[in-house]
Amino acid sequence: MLTGGGDCPGLNAVIRAVVRRAHGYGDGVIGFRDGWRGPIENDVEALTLEAVRGILPQGGTILGSSRTNPFKRDDGVDLVRRALEAHSLDGLIAIGGEDTLGAAAKLFDAGVNVVGVPKTIDNDLGGTDMTFGFDTAVQVATEAIDRLHTTAESHNRIMILEVMGRHAGWIAMHSGLAGGADVILVPERPFDIDEVCARLERRFARGRHFAIVVVSEGALPSGGDIEAVGAQTDEFGHARLGGIGPRLEQEIGQRTGYETRATVLGHIQRGGTPTAFDRVLATRLGLAAMEAAHDGRWGTMASLRSTRIEMVALADAVAQLRVLSDEDLRIADALLE
């Protein structure tokens, strides 16, 4: 078993569920350290009942994580295969998002036995209705909006909250709706900065002298009014995002003349204790993944479909990202002033 990509509330609940279910079967489990780096470097640790005792409410992952890509090395697939053979393992349970599970799908095509568990706070992984960690991230972001509301109203300010969401605006949309935001900006729909400012000015003209703007880190302007923010890329080719909030602070403040402040929530969304919902969902997914591995149903991923946990084809689950639909955007538009 390994955990890859960004850490996420609920990862330890999955690990615990896998180990406890394996113990019931009489199967043994080992953990590879730091994502795909573990099998590549054969860095492992035994996962016993005692090792996972008390980890259910803990954030992060006891196995560590990284954004290592086994396909960045010519011998990556062979090293993973050798690591499994060295420990007489039947297969591997990979817990991660689009990159980790994308690599897992390729490994399965190369003949490596893999079962996947979907993990991303962005909630953008295909093949499942929801990923664990998302509920916790939304709760953290909503609480931040509630707190920003009091300062915004006290000082007649526009407060901007930048949340995570590279390709999908699920966190911004759900927390913005829950927190009563006045503007929500998401990657699925490029925004017009003039239109954003006009909306805020109309709100002030009605006598509401404060406003809340929630923006996904991956949101971009439609006409290039604000330069895109990005830095170095990781091993999967993703630019490191962050900074659209401060850029909006500058642009909105200059264009409207209203005092504007930005807060970047950042990694606070990833850390800390998972919500009860995420603990239960992660546990259910971990149990299903271990049962699939025990039964030899390789090349599949545990998935939440409606209220049931089902196994879906791993290749299908990573074929495309799950993003906000036109209907999701319409609902938000109907509620915003």
From TrEMBL:
The keyword ATP-binding does not apply. InterPro entries: ATP_PFK, ATP_PFK_prok-type, Phosphofructokinase_CS, Phosphofructokinase_dom, Phosphofructokinase_III, PKF_sf. It is found in: Cytoplasm. Substrate binds at T120, I121, D122, R157, M164, G165, R166, E217, R261, H267, I268, Q269, R270. The keyword Magnesium applies. The lineage of its organism: Bacteria, Bacillati, Actinomycetota, Thermoleophilia, Solirubrobacterales. This is Pyrophosphate--fructose 6-phosphate 1-phosphotransferase. Its EC number is 2.7.1.90. Residues 2-292 form the Phosphofructokinase domain. Pfam families: PFK. The gene is pfp. Non-allosteric. Catalyzes the phosphorylation of D-fructose 6-phosphate, the first committing step of glycolysis. Uses inorganic phosphate (PPi) as phosphoryl donor instead of ATP like common ATP-dependent phosphofructokinases (ATP-PFKs), which renders the reaction reversible, and can thus function both in glycolysis and gluconeogenesis. Consistently, PPi-PFK can replace the enzymes of both the forward (ATP-PFK) and reverse (fructose-bisphosphatase (FBPase)) reactions. It comes from Capillimicrobium parvum.
